[in-house]
């Protein structure tokens, strides 16, 4: 028996309005844009529940543990983005060199927290949509519109086990922009955003040192210190700290620092 059907959507997976929001090419009958195969069932969420519910009798469990630390904040010089580079699968460190900043275009950046495959796939899909918008309208897409496209997409797949906690940052006609989007379709903007398993530790450092009139050098140091302290306390975060600066002229990668040597720079403050 064939359990999956590629290229079409299960009957209740997407309502027409949700499909049209997520895909401009929606024709009212069938989604013609990129999508995942879904279980051929009236309720895909209920179909998948026994395979991830810890109380079910099945031996198949597809839940996985993951963690990271990413942060971004706006200041008088633009937006600073900082991320670690560790990928984990439960207690196993799968990689120390994951690139958690997706360079959507010269004026837009996205970060990864959650499932690396989900974040990377859909943010690269977002890069395609932003380029199509630019070709159709002869101007760059705004940060708010880019984040809304991603929000509409993940909302159409809510409760289907996507794992995403991303930040979209950039510079447009209104100046610097920073938005958070997650797999439930939550979307908001703020001057300071951090997500991932180490975000609570990063927030503690940011709350202490953040102010709007930071110089670029002070902003870079604050971001680096916040990520470092998160990697020190959170075993799911580590590797390399990458820092990006979003300016009116576009993003610039500032540095990539291994967390090991940084311990000796910050250890006196932690004693």
The fraction of residues in strands falls at: 25-35%
Total number of beta strands: 14
Compressed to H and E, one letter per element, the order equals EHEHEEEEEEHHEEEEHHEEH
Query: Which regions are unreliable across 5 or more consecutive residues at pLDDT < 50?
Result: 1-32
Secondary structural class: alpha+beta
Question: What report would you give on this structure?
Answer:
It is a single chain. This protein has helices at residues 16-22, 44-48, 116-137, 143-156, 199-209, 216-233, 259-270; strands at 4-5, 38-39, 70-75, 78-83, 87-89, 92-95, 101-105, 108-111, 165-172, 175-182, 187-189, 192-195, 240-247, 250-258. It has 271 residues and is α+β, with helices and mostly antiparallel strands. It has a five-stranded antiparallel β-sheet with strand order 12-3-4-13-14. The chain has a five-stranded antiparallel β-sheet with strand order 7-8-9-10-11, with helices on one face. Strands 1-2 form a two-stranded antiparallel ribbon. Strand 10 (175-182) and strand 11 form a beta hairpin. The relative contact order is 0.16.
